[in-house]
Amino acid sequence: MIIEGRIIDKDHPPYVIAELSANHNGSLDNALRCIEAFKSCGADAIKLQTYTPDTLTLDCQREDFVIHGGLWDGQTLYQLYEKAYLPWEWHQPLFEHAKQLGITIFSTPFDETAVDLLEELNTPAYKIASFEAIDIPLIQYVAQTRKPMIISTGMASWEEIGEAVAAARDSGCRDLALLHCVSSYPAPIEQSNLLTIRELEKRFGVMAGISDHTLGTTVAIASIALGARIIEKHVTLDRSHDGPDSSFSLEPDEFRQLCIQTRDAWKALGAVKKGKVAAEDSSVKFRRSIYVTEDTKAGEILTRKNIRCIRPGFGLAPKHYESVLGRTLKIDAKKGTALSWDMMN
């Protein structure tokens, strides 16, 4: 997968996305500052969400539309989205600001009109939210742009993921990634099931990653070892601002550490390799080898008393110890002499 020239694969560092979501807190200036802050923290991309309350739900008080439990308890869906949405007229200044700063920006559309807006802004990629992973018509509409698409898979069954992948590919998407996700806010760490990342890659032949809603950075960093190459985390300038998503979002210093640590984790993966690596060159001499441990004359027999396996490693390897016991020296050997084959009969 390539987004604005950035290659996303196993041979390159993980692609880290700062998800702004609702943490603009109703302020364009705040949203602009978020782009600056998280670009400086090391984000590869800033991601927005493009919808209005009316494109997501109805302004309705009936029980079906009321949220019970969790962060948004007691609000209707319309009330939540009215508070959280990013006004469409903000998109252009945000895209322009990101371009000036040299950071990729794209968005999650929630209906066809959102896709149309993002196409006008020449978005370089699209993200499909977990809740929309079953919206096959939306996936098809996005795929027709032939731009890279990332689909979150929270709540989705294997069958539903397969349907989404097929819809994307059949409609023209050739650059597709899937993100493992637990759609709970915050998500419990013990339900992360990170082994799913490998299975997503294996089953669908895609680049895989994680959209992480757990608190902190542990899960995101651990996901690198399971093959995650895209990391998405919600961000906020300050959790005390009490935005709709603030409580499970990372502040700048935390996000900076996430960027550093996920990339360090990727570096640590390396390749399947045993034997000495370059960093061990100076350590080899401190392995054990066979040494003469007391002054010994030519003709004397080598015994457990006058030779031992000790550090450093300039003598014969310890695996030869039993085979040299009982042999005789050809030369005098002082205590501390590394034993070699040419010293013995």
Describe what this molecule looks like in 3D:
The model has no long low-confidence stretch (mean pLDDT 95). The chain has 11 helices and 12 strands. It folds into 2 domains: 9-269, Alpha-Beta Barrel (TIM Barrel), CATH 3.20.20.70; 278-343, Antifreeze-like/N-acetylneuraminic acid synthase C-terminal domain (Type Iii Antifreeze Protein Isoform Hplc 12). The strands form 3 sheets. An 8-stranded parallel beta sheet has the order 5-4-3-10-9-8-7-6. With 345 residues, the protein is of the alpha/beta class. Helix 1 packs parallel to helix 4, helix 6 (136-143) packs parallel to helix 7 (158-170) and helix 9 packs parallel to helix 10 (252-269). The N and C termini lie far apart (65 Å). Helix 8 (196-204) links the parallel strand 8 and strand 9. The protein is elongated and about 100 Å long.
Summarize the SSE layout with pairings.
Layout: E1 2-3, E2 6-7, E3 15-19, H1 28-40, E4 45-50, H2 53-56, H3 77-84, H4 91-101, E5 104-109, H5 112-120, E6 126-128, H6 136-143, E7 149-152, H7 158-170, E8 176-181, H8 196-204, E9 207-212, H9 218-225, E10 230-234, H10 252-269, E11 289-292, E12 307-310, H11 321-324
Parallel strand pairs: 3-4, 3-10, 4-5, 6-7, 7-8, 8-9, 9-10
Antiparallel strand pairs: 1-2, 11-12
Helix pairs in contact: 1-4, 6-7, 9-10
